[in-house]
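Bump. Still looking for Nicotinamide mononucleotide adenylyltransferase structure tokens.
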Amino acid sequence: MSIIDENDDKFESVLSIENKCTRLNLNENIYGTFAEIGAGQETVRHFFRARNPKGTIAKTLSAYDKDFSDAIYGLDPQHRYVTEHRLKSMMEYETGLIEKRISRKKHPNKLFFSYANTVATIDWAKKYKGHGWLGVRFQKVPKQEYSEIVLHVQFHENNASQQQISLGIMGVNLIYAAYYQSEDPRELIRRLYDHLSVDKIEIDAINFTGPVFENVDNRLMSLELVKEGITEAVMFSKDGHNILPANVLYKKNLLTLRGSFRPVTNLNLHMYKTGKRLFLQEEEVDPEKTVIIFEMTINNLKSEGEIDEKDFLDRADLLCSSGHTVMISSFQEYYKVVEYFAQHTKAQMGLVMGVDNLLDIFNEKYYRNLSGGMLEAFGKLFFKNLKIYLYPILNEETGEIINSKNLKVHPRLKELYKFFTDNNKVVDIEDYDKETLKIHPRKVYQMMLDGDKEWEKMVPGLTAKMIKENQMFGMRKREKTEN
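Sorry for the wait, here they are.
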């Protein structure tokens, strides 16, 4: 049973930072350490300024010197200091230390925590905006196994002192939320921005672990970041762990396949395999430094109104079961995807798409918000080291296979289209499978719902097996009948 007065949290809609610190300080059971590296001790400063700091602060330190940091927390495998591994080492070390030094016999009701951050603020030349990891490891029941909230932030302010202020505020919000707002992780994410805005500090990865969050699916928390407009894109790995996009994308060759994946079909699979084969044949592409990304946009997930979280997790499970890295983004236009990737890599990029998607790229309605219109968008799309690997479509009325060579675009766009095809920016996938061209993903989904078993022939074997066993995509359980 918790000994925290959570029910009293409704007395004020948004507490001031000072009042949050005061409330924590006055709780005789919440007690912990603060370890902050890289931006000064901005979080604990608020606790010292509030009433009764000795009620909460057991110790505070800043192992700013790298040798001191290594001596205390150990060497980082990547020999870096602003990493998730470093943050976790800090939190584990500090909670271990407080457990050793504070007697449980003397203080049976103590709820220990360790707050830590390791950050790099904006450099003097203002070339790098800065980023950091922060987290809290805490107990809500005495002697309970520790729970953790770990997040990565990107700084957007152009002054180091402003970034430090924002970091300090978010640190207080994080500790307070861990103890008083952790019953609802979605609300917790929103409350991290009390007295802040995403224009100042962006969270682009977050993970919840431990007994307090045993029923939390971190992929849904990733989705929440995009839904709330906190970040533009998130990624998670095949094990469902939210991963930092910058770590995945940094200096990598990137091949991306966008879709709704509801479900993954044989068409998706063949597009992926043939597109990958062509991409890896590119002279500048090193297979060892190549990442394949399956991307879904918020618009894909909202195709029928509000996002159905079970439907989203079904799609994610199918992709992750095949070992793929999944990206959820708010990017409707392809050029925004390329711009996002270009922040992290200058290596070769590729987009695998069907002819219908290419036609969308040449639809002027998507570029009315740009002062330079379509030309500006295409400059952003193809200025980078990018190629499109185009999977053909079948004209079912005439039987004609349509690719980049016989695709008809609006006469006004014909010369623009020809410029990109003539310069080898659009590469036709020629070893396509004609049978897959007859697959229409939306029809496959409807066939599943209607009980038409022909859908099973249109998806990979493992996909069909998982869908049936786990009753994915709202399928009604059907009794098996013997012939």
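The domain at 247-438 is CATH 3.40.50 (Rossmann fold).

Edit: fixed formatting.
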